[in-house]
Amino acid sequence: MFDDLRELYQEVILDHSKHPRNFRHPDDANHEAHGYNPLCGDTLNVYLKMGHNGLIEDAAFEGKGCAISLASASMMTEIITGKTETEAKVLFDGFQKLVKGEEATIDAGDDTERLMVLAGVKEFPMRVKCATLAWHAMSSAMDGEEEASTE
Length: 151
Ligand code: ZN
Prior knowledge:
Elements: H1 3-18, E1 31-37, E2 42-50, E3 56-64, H2 67-80, H3 85-99, H4 112-118, H5 128-143, E4 147-148
Parallel strand pairs: 1-4
Antiparallel strand pairs: 1-2, 2-3
Helix pairs in contact: 1-2, 2-5, 3-5
The chain binds zinc ion (ZN).
């Protein structure tokens, strides 16, 4: 990774893990799922409020985990709020490819750069499941499954 990107990566992870956004359990959430990453011990719940036409009106999470899992969950909740279920899944798909080192283009509007920075976790293969845990939980929640698998 280039030094600039590495610095930005550490800055973003540190900021979001120390001050997670949307770290709460909304009363009106109508979808939720639990995600557990046995490799690291990260455990978190993702809460979604899905509105008409699959619009994600609110996204939040609670849980415990390493800096990367918390930072990723924090950024994810910010990025997917206001998007549709389909848009969120397309982003997850692209993000997952990037962290696995595969080619993918992602378009998250203003959030694209931040998501690319987060995808820098591909430099640390042991941490990839930390970074994708919240996304798996989000996807499971939308599908009505209570437990998310990182496989
Ligand atoms: Zn972790």
